[in-house]
Amino acid sequence: MLQKVEGIVLRASSYGESDKIVTIFSRELGKRAAMARGAKKPTSRLASVSQPFTYGYFLIQQGRGMGTLQQGEIIDSMRTIREDIFTTAYASFIMELVDKLIDDESPKPHLFDILHQALQAISDDYDPEAISLFVEWKMLATAGIYPVLHQCVNCGATDGEFAFSFAQIGFLCHRCFSIDRYLIRLTPAQVKLIRTFYTVPIDQVGKLTLKKETKTFIKKIIRTIYSEQVGIQLKSQKFLDQMERTPEFFTPKKDPSSEEH
Ligand SMILES: [Zn+2]
């Protein structure tokens, strides 16, 4: 059966002399791997459509086992993302997160939209660090984690001082501080910020200007949830952390001859 899908190439790996196996996250089918015959040859019509980040329409021949990528039509190659080491690093991190958290082949149009809008926002020059943090919050539900942020997770109170509890995955009010000795105390502004960040639609994220310390604070919370509750390790995170610590070593490449073809 031949099926046309709207998708994004999550990753591509070499297979044999000239083929590639591409993993496509599509609106219609969810995550699927497909064989792209001849895609390693630069002259192949599948060479450019099988590159990671590519957003387009893909014609997949489904049979028993792995499908075959027959044709691709690029809507956006996300070239601007690939041309810069910072945007590439953040976008790679987002792709790996989506890839790791989705393990079946059922359609997930809502997640597809999040991924697509995130890549689009990075490509449109919005702060890639803020966008990746946003995706991390949004993907928590896919990992089965629903932080309680509208009230105290223990007693349900909506007033008072609040703290974030990693053990309870949510806010605790001052009356309940004693149930978690590792909580993080929050100012009213931080409470508001965390709520906003969790509930804001992605097309509004680009409009939020976040200070460096705000992002560091949000990141500390979200990364702790991922490492303690979700338990996934991302290869791209190590590089990202290194890059954030010493950005001066990672100047964006400007030389067009160094581009991939
Ligand atoms: Zn309480």
Bound molecules: zinc ion
Distance N to C terminus: 31 Å
Which superfamily, in CATH terms, is the homologous superfamily of the largest domain? Recombination protein O, C-terminal domain
CATH topology-level fold name of the largest domain: de novo design (two linked rop proteins)
Per DSSP E runs of 2 or more residues, the count of β-strands stands at 8
Question: In the CATH hierarchy, what is the architecture of the largest domain at level 2?
Answer: Up-down Bundle
Give the mean pLDDT. Answer: 90
Number of domains: 2
Q: Beta-sheet strand percentage? A: 15-25%
Uncertain stretches of 5 or more adjacent residues: none
Q: How many individual helices?
A: 8
Question: Helical proportion?
Answer: 25-40%
Q: What is the H/E string?
A: EEEEEHHHHEEEHHHH
Reading off the top of the CATH hierarchy, the class of the largest domain is best stated as Mainly Alpha
Structural class: alpha+beta
Characterize the biggest β-sheet: 5 strands, mixed, barrel
